Amino acid sequence: MSDTAANLRAQFPLLAAAPELHYLDSAATAQIHRAALDAVVSHETTRRANVMRGTYRLAEAADLAYEQARQSAARFLNAGSAGEIVFTPGATASLNLVAHAFGSTLKAGDRVLVSVAEHHSNFVPWQMLRDRCGIELAPIPVGADGRLDLTRLSELMGDRCRLVAVTQCSNVTGAWTDVATIVAAARKVGAKVLLDGAQAVQHGPQDVRAMDIDFYAFSGHKCFGPGGVGVLWGRAEALARMPPFLGGGGMIAEVTPEASTWAAPPQRFEAGTPPIAQAIGLAAALDWMMTLDWTAIREREDALCQQLIEGLARIPGLRLLGPQHAHHCEARAPIVSFDIPDLHPHDICQVLDAQNLALRGGHHCAQPLLAALGAEACTRASIALYNGEADIEALLAGLDRARRELA
Ligand code: PMP
C-alpha cells in the first residue's frame, strides 16, 4: 500500500470511523495507529503478566515483549543500545526524571539553560530544581519569529553551564531548533544537552547519535502510539552516573533495613510496574513508522503547511506566529498558530468544532513564549501524515464562517 494521505488515514481506526472529521490537533495528541492498538490488545489477551518478576512462561513472554519494545525504541532513535532506553509515563515524566536525577548531581551556582520557547514541561521542572538547589536558570531568548536567538549563547552559558535543555521543535510555532549550534557551544564548556522531542517524533525517526546530544524525551501518544507511556533516552555514561528518581520495586540491587543499592540503568529509573502494554503498543507504532517513506511524507506535510499559511495570509489582520513566509516551511514543523484580532481562540475553536474541525486554542502550555511574542492565546492547527488538502480547505472555509459568525 502506498503512503498517500488517504491510505494512511485508513490505518487509523478513529479516523476511518469518522470520515467527516478534520483532525488538526496532532500536536496535542496524534491518533493511534491500528498496529499499536492491535499490539496492546494482543499483549493484554495473550501475554499479560508483570515484567522482571515472574519465572513462569507467561511472565517470560511478557518480559521478552517488553525488552523487544525497548529495542524498537532504540532503533527509532538510533540509540547506542536498548539499555539506554527508559520507559516512562510520558515526556513530562522523562523531563522531570532528568531534572531530579541529573539535577541532584548539580551544585548551587551551576547553570542550566532552557529557552523561552519551552513547553511548561521543560520549564517548570527546572524552576523547581532552581528553588530546591540554588542552580542558576537562564532562558535563551527568542526572536520575533519565535526561533531561538542563539547570538548570545556562549555568554548565557558562562563557564558553569552543566546542561542545556531545549525543545527540538516548538509546540506553538513549529520552529525547529538549531541543535548543532547548541551542541557545539555546550561541548566547549562541558555541558550536556537534553532535547525535548515531543513534537518532533511524529514527523519521523530521530538520530540521537548524529545529533550528538545526551538526553532525549518524548511521549507515545504524539507518535501514533498509546497514551501513558513515553521514553527517556540517555547516553549510557550519563545514565550510569545518575542516582534514581523514584524508589520502589524493580530499581534496586539490594535492600536491607538500613540502606539500598541501585540496579543498573535502565531499570534504575523504572521503579514500580512500568506501562507494559503501552510500551509494547508504542513499539508497534515506532516499528510501523520505520517502514514509511519520510522524505515523501515530509514533502506532503510541508505542502499542506504552505497551503495553510498562504490561505491564512488572505485573512485581514490575521497574525501568524513563528517563521513568517510560506517558503519558510522548512524552518517549521507543520504546526501553524495564529491570532485573529477581536476573536478569542476558544470561540474560534468552538465554531470550527461545529464544522467537524478539531483544533486547539489557548496558551498551549507555553506562556513564556506567548508573552515573548506578545500574544495571550492563539489558535493552532497541527498537521500530521494522515491529513490532506481537504482538511486545509475545510479549515480555511471554517475560519471564514467563524469570522462571519463571531463578528
Ligand atoms: N514538550 C512539548 C514540546 C510538548 O508539546 C508536550 C505536549 N504538549 C510535552 C512536552 C509534554 O508531553 P506530555 O503531556 O505527553 O507529557
Descriptive account of the structure:
The chain has 407 residues and is an alpha/beta fold. It has 2 domains: 5-24 and 293-406, Aspartate Aminotransferase, domain 1, CATH 3.90.1150; 37-289, Type I PLP-dependent aspartate aminotransferase-like (Major domain) (Aspartate Aminotransferase, domain 2, 3-Layer(aba) Sandwich), CATH 3.40.640. Helix content is 38%, strand content 15%. The strands form 4 sheets. The protein has a 7-stranded mixed β-sheet, sandwiched between helices. A 4-stranded antiparallel β-sheet has the order 11-12-15-14, with helices on one face. Strand 5 (161-167), helix 8 and strand 6 form a beta-alpha-beta unit. The model has no long low-confidence stretch (mean pLDDT 96). Bound molecules: 4'-deoxy-4'-aminopyridoxal-5'-phosphate (PMP).
Brief sketch in words of this structure:
With 407 residues, the protein is of the alpha/beta class.
User: What is the number of E strands?
Assistant: 15
* Fraction of residues in β-strands: 15-25%
Helix content: 25-40%
CATH class of the largest domain: Alpha Beta
N-C termini distance: 46 Å
User: Which runs of at least 5 residues are low in confidence (pLDDT < 50)?
Assistant: none
